[in-house]
Amino acid sequence: MVDLRETEPGTVLTNETFIDISLEGIELEALTFEHCAFHGCQFSSVKARALSFRHCRFYDADRETACTFRFARLKDCEFTECDLTLSDFSRSQLYQCRFHQCQLSGAQFSHCTNQHVLTASVTMHELSLTDCNLAYADLSGSGLKETDFSGSRLSHAQLDRADLTEAVLTDCEMHEVSGEDLVLRGADLRGATLGGLDVRLIDMTDVQIQVEQAAVLLDTIGVKVR
Question: Shortest CA distance to 106 belongs to which of 146, 162, 67?
Fold first, then answer.
């Protein structure tokens, strides 16, 4: 099995399997993984930049175990068509990361952020989770301003106290999400399914929605649009 602690930047790894390895606290840079499997691996507190994961599996269905990225600091990392079921990204920093067409059902993103502090007065926000399955994921308390979730499934997700200010949620499935004290200020919700979203618990100042969506939101609080 390849020792990632000694792998040089620029290396491309294909069809490798990593089992129960711990990379806690190490630094990784400019590595590409294609069709690799990670079973029960620990990426906690990893500091990583420019990693690319394509068609990789981070969930072991036989053992029902996932990988953890708790407290990781990931910058400019890409996950494309990966199985990250039940993976734990809680309290991680995911600046300029891109998840596309990934399986993230039940994943933990609680209290994670997408921010990068440049100066005391300037903070950048950038993250995309597009066309992903985030059903039953936990994003409670997360700070994900300006995140692009377009086309993703967020049904039954936990969004309590999450800050999704100016996020892009176009064409997302958002029915039956838990959203107490959720902030959606300035978010784009056009085309999203919003059944069960209680507007009384959410900051929806300046959100963008379509007329038919307004009727759905009002119906949840007992207002009928004729």
Answer: 67
